[in-house]
Amino acid sequence: MSAAQPLLETRGLHLSIGGKQICRDLNFSVQQGERWGVLGVNGVGKTSLLLALAGLKTAQAGSVHMQGKALSEFTGRQLAQLCGVMFQDSDDAFPASVLETALIGRHPHLRAWEWESAADEAIARAALQAVGLAELTQRTTNTLSGGERRRLALATLLAQDPPLMLLDEPVNHLDLHHQIDALELLTQQVTQHGKTSVMVLHDVNLAARYCDALLLLFGDGEVLQGAVREVLTLENLSRLYGHPVRSVETPEGVLYYPEIRKT
Amino acid sequence: MKRALIPLFSLAALALASGLLALSFGSVATSWQSVWQVLLGNDHGLSSDLVLQLRLPRAINAFTTGALLALAGALMQVLLRNPLADPYVLGISGGAAVAALCAILLGIGGLWLNAAAFAGALISMFLVFGLARGAGAWSSPRLLLTGVIVAAGWGALIGFLLTVSPDAQLRGMLFWLMGDLGGAESYGLGVFTLVLGLALSLPLARNLNVMARGELSARALGVPVARLRLGLYGLASLLTAVAVMTAGSIGFIGLVAPHILRLAVGNDHRILLPGAALFGGSLLLLADTVARTALAPQQLPVGVVTALLGVPLFLYLLSRAERR
After folding, report:
1. How do residues A114-137 score in pLDDT, each as one tens digit?
2. Can you tell me whether residue A226 is helix, strand or coil?
3. Does B37 reside within a domain?
4. Which residues of A, range 140-179, sit inside 8 Å of B by Cβ?
5. What ipTM was assigned to the predicted interfaces of this complex?
6. Domain that holds residue B298
7. How many beta-carbon pairs under 8 angstroms link A with B?
8. What is the Cα–Cα distance from A19 to B37, expressed in whole angstroms?
């Protein structure tokens, strides 16, 4: 793999939004088969960075490349076959059935006049099965709970079946067991199906467990990147979240927790 | 693909039935069998003249106008990602109406009246488009709000024009404002525009499905959103302008035909776009038949009929959908 081009790469990326610097001269590369996590406090620009990686937000300077090719050289459809995004919220102005929504993920694989084939439908149904929504295929999206919507968004991304998955808070609104299920599912996609993922996460313990490498956004353009073991130090975490962070050894690995303020 | 056939065939059958009904009813009732014989070319008598010269052009105009409005409405709803949007909400027909009333007031008639209406629709479109774009992004709420405000402005101008107009012209103006299918003689432009509109929008139908889920996710799925929005706005405005030119301002069809279909067959635009055209056309055809015959020999403005028939139907469907 070392000879191959990185799947995703930024070269000298400068990104700022509303006068706030998110990253400065960021050189970041993701190899196929890696699971990256993006951590930082609210409003530090995690979502904006993810959008820039997907080519949905223009950077002030620098460029994003996929498989060695600048994003501007791809057509929208080619890019959508290579990279898929799971967004934080979905739009329900026009409710559709759960199955129809998952089938939307097949869009980049179909020609203008083409209708979804039986194979496409099988892919969408398998994706819904994987996230535990197989029973709800005929429900309309506006009757779903917040957690069910998140799982549907994940199923839509699985149906899109891109080699690179960019996920914005994929386990937001999910119950604990669904959080674990979703992250196990994504890990399985990476280890068994050769996918690659970059996800924005809120929970540092989930990130420690389900990511191989992390990108820490400190604000003011300062970014730290590296393998989970290298960057997840108490010092870095305390600085990242602006609050002292401690850790405890458990049989399942190190757990991080915020120091409780004494009153 | 297969699931598109049943709704579309049903709607085509409805359109055909509405057509036969429109051709049989009138001051001289003609049985649908003899209408059929006339259409097949087996009858060349008096009823042939009546059906082919008088009723057929009007029926074609009614159908195409309804289809144009419904298709324009369906496109605008995706553009604004709001199922309650239609060309009238965006002020396009208001601009056309003001221009047409000015023309009537100046004593201009015929083809130039139509040209004025068309120009008014386009000016209104550029106005809304330009103001809504402003300096920032072209957000849907801003566009919708701008359209509503511009429409309110046109409404005030219409009131002003009606007040200062001499009595002799008021009646014609009112008929024009409420929509009237009696005036148009040729139907070539309407039919051509409808075919063009369908030919341009149908290949984009799946893109519209994706865009209805949100613009950012549509871009992430490879839909060229900026180009698509511009094309949708232009096409919907053109369809509206031609509809207004043909029959004056008929509200309601552009809003209700797509909406009823969304409740009945769902939001897949590959079915919805052709379906809305067939359904909107049938609806206006039936409404015009009622307008011609209900109080005969007096003719009602067809816009009054569409509102009287459509409002309760719409409210009923809405309440049923809420309960489900």
Report:
1. 899 999 999 999 999 999 999 999
2. strand
3. no
4. 160
5. 0.90
6. 2-27+59-323
7. 78
8. 75
